[in-house]
Every structure is written in structure tokens, then in C-alpha cells.
Specification:
Shape: globular
Largest sheet: 4 strands, mixed
Family: Belongs to the RNase H family.
Keywords: Endonuclease, Hydrolase, Magnesium, Metal-binding, Nuclease
Protein name: Ribonuclease H
GO biological process, one term: DNA replication, removal of RNA primer
GO molecular function: metal ion binding; RNA-DNA hybrid ribonuclease activity
Helix content: 40-55%
Oligomer: single chain
Number of strands: 10
Length: about 220
């Protein structure tokens, strides 16, 4: 059965049937937004709901004390009037905007989150850490409690596929499979720690202790 990967915010928007092609568009793209579908029409609807209709960027020499960058909305760009920003982000799913004191900062934010420019260098350090973790001899488990699909995964790439673009994603790396499974099932770190403590206490109680011998009483 065909799968459709809708990339709403990535280096290249579009509908992909090959996960590797979709992955190229979202890897290293800041806060990429995408979703997997079984139905092509649903995937197209998802894309259309997350599409900017126009771009507006005020002149760089505009005199203002506040600049608003809208990276995801009906109209994207850099604004000085907040009313325009409100219209742009109203009812737009996963809208993204931020206020700045200078045009340069606002424009940089817009380029980063709308077009992915300047994001690759920032993500390179994370990529190196990821590769280092995956090539480590120690076995690791990636637990996804909230994502496109919850569960325990053996590689970061699988974990990233389930969490990228998912609002409120919750995931964590473990070196213990049982703890990873507990986290994926919805347990908090505190509950996992308590479970671990109970298990350790139980093991200690199960250890045979020598029974002291009674001394014979002299008559």
C-alpha cells in the first residue's frame, strides 16, 4: 500500500512517496512540519491548509521600534504592524512568528524558519552528536511517548521520523530497554525512577541472609 509524505515546511514543499526524498527536505530544517498519510487526498489537504498565499517584507530602512517576523502563516515575511501579523496567523495551523527590535533580526528569523537558510550550520553540531551516539558501542533505546507513532526505537533516525513536525512531541533516549518502554507507555521520569527503586529493593530483600545460630546454654 502506498504511503504519502506531505512536507508542509521543509527545504522543498510537496508530496513524496519515497521517505528518503521526504527526509532530505526535513533533515536539518528548523522545526520541519510534515506528516505521513495512507490517502493521497488527505495528504494534499494537509499541504493546502499549511500554505502561504503571499510574502511581504517591509523595506530594510523602515523606521520602527518593533519588527514582526512571520515564518509560517497566510502571508509570510517581516512586518511592523501587529494587526497584519494577527490576520496572517489566524486559523493557520502551527503558525510561527516572533517579535524583534531590529529588521535584521526579524529578517534572519524569517529566512531561517521559512526557507531554512542558515539552519544547516546550526544543526551540524547536533548531527555530529547524533552520529556519535549511533556509532557508540553502547546499546541505546529511543522512547517516543507522543509522536506520529509511539514506541521504542533503536535508531535516532526512526525516532526523528515519528517526532519531527509533531506538535508537543515527547521523546527521550535510554540505555535501558525496560525504562524506555515505561516512558513510551506514558510513565513520567519520576515514576520510572520509583519503579527502578522498587525493583532494586525487591532484589535486596530476595537475597538470602544467614540465620544467626543460637549459642548453647551451659547448665
Amino acid at each position: 500500500m502506498s504511503k504519502f509524505y506531505a512536507v508542509a515546511h521543509g527545504f522543498k514543499r510537496g508530496l513524496f512517496e519515497d521517505w528518503n526524498e521526504a527526509k532530505k527536505q526535513i533533515d536539518d530544517f528548523p522545526q520541519a512540519v510534515y506528516k505521513k498519510f495512507d490517502d493521497k487526498k488527505e495528504a494534499e489537504k494537509y499541504l493546502n491548509e499549511r500554505k502561504a498565499t503571499s510574502t511581504k517584507i517591509v523595506p530594510e530602512d523602515t523606521k520602527a521600534s518593533t519588527f514582526y517576523a512571520v515564518a509560517r502563516g497566510k502571508t509570510i515575511g517581516v512586518f511592523v504592524e501587529y494587526d497584519e501579523v494577527k490576520k496572517s496567523i489566524a486559523d493557520y495551523p502551527q503558525a510561527l512568528q516572533k517579535k524583534f527590535s531590529t529588521f535584521a533580526e526579524a529578517h534572519e528569523y524569517y529566512l531561517k524558519f521559512a526557507e531554512g537558510k542558515g539552519a544547516v550550520k546550526e544543526e551540524s553540531k547536533k548531527s555530529k552528536e547524533t552520529k556519535s551516539a549511533e556509532t557508540s558501542n553502547a546499546e541505546v533505546f529511543y522512547a517516543v511517548a507522543r509522536g506520529h507513532k509511539s514506541g521504542v526505537f533503536s535508531t535516532w533516525a526512526e525516532c526523528k521520523e515519528q517526532t519531527d513536525g509533531f506538535r508537543g512531541a515527547k521523546f527521550k533516549k535510554f540505555d535501558n530497554k525496560e525504562e524506555a518502554e515505561l516512558f513510551a507507555s506514558g510513565k513520567t521520569l519520576k515514576q520510572i525512577e520509583e519503579h527502578k527503586k522498587r525493583s532494586n529493593d525487591s532484589s535486596s530483600n530476595d537475597t538470602d541472609c544467614p540465620v544467626p545460630s543460637k549459642k548453647s546454654k551451659k547448665v
